[in-house]
Each structure stands twice: as C-alpha cells, then as structure tokens.
C-alpha cells in the first residue's frame, strides 16, 4: 500500500499527457463500453466497462496503492468510478476531466470523436 497523500480527485487531459511523457508509472483505465472502445481509445489504456465493474472489481485489486487515472466519454461515468474506488481504499485514483472527447480535441486529434 502506498503511504502517499491522496492525489486530487480530478486531473485534466494536459496533466495526463504530461504524465505519459514523463514516464511516471500509472494505470490508465477506460470505463466506457466495448463499442465505444472499438470506436476510439487512448493507446495503453485498460478497458473495464462501468457496466461490468461490480462483477470484475477484483481486477482492480493489483492496482491498489498505484496511481489510476480513469476516463470515459466526457467524465461523468469515470468520476462515479473514481468515487467508488476511493471509498474502497484507492486513494490514488483520479478522474480525467473532459474524458476521451477532450483528449481528442486537445491532445491527440487522431483519436476519433463520436
């Protein structure tokens, strides 16, 4: 378990892009549905759809204590997941505000918008 202070609950797309450039280890978790994932995704992300979270929650356990940045389409579902994760002891979980839509607009235009 990481003894670090909890990170701010939200992180913007520019901060996430900087994290990726820095090589700092973190998990990028996509909580959109499979069809959304097939339309557009951020390279290196792991998919765990919100609709499957309850059944697959155990898959998150190896990441407890790690920084986990969660995203969805615009940021609402991912914030819901971050709140659930934090209530389960994942103090380093963060919501990427604006989601993949903002990522596409401001960071990587090769990621399709939908």
Strand content: 5-15%
DSSP summary, beta strand count: 5
> What fraction, in percent, of the residue positions are helical?
25-40%
> How many helices does DSSP assign?
5
CATH top level is Alpha Beta
Give, in order, the helices and strands: EHEHEHEHEH
If you average the pLDDT, what whole number results? Answer: 95
Q: In the CATH hierarchy, what is the architecture at level 2?
A: 3-Layer(aba) Sandwich
List the uncertain runs. none
Shape: globular
SS content category? alpha/beta
Q: What oligomerization state is this entry in? A: single chain
| Domain module count | 1
CATH superfamily: Rhodanese-like domain
Cα gyration radius (Å): 13 Å
Order of strands, main sheet, comes to 1-5-4-2-3
Largest sheet, in brief, is:
5 strands, parallel
- Return the CATH topology: Oxidized Rhodanese, domain 1
Q: State the distance separating the first and last CA atoms.
A: 38 Å
List keywords for this structure.
114 residues; alpha/beta; Oxidized Rhodanese, domain 1
Descriptive notes:
The chain has one domain: Rhodanese-like domain (Oxidized Rhodanese, domain 1, 3-Layer(aba) Sandwich). 35% of the residues lie in helices and 14% in strands. It has 5 helices and 5 strands, in the order E-H-E-H-E-H-E-H-E-H. It has a 5-stranded parallel beta sheet. The radius of gyration is 13 Å and the shape is globular. The N and C termini lie far apart (38 Å). The relative contact order is 0.25. The model has no long low-confidence stretch (mean pLDDT 95).
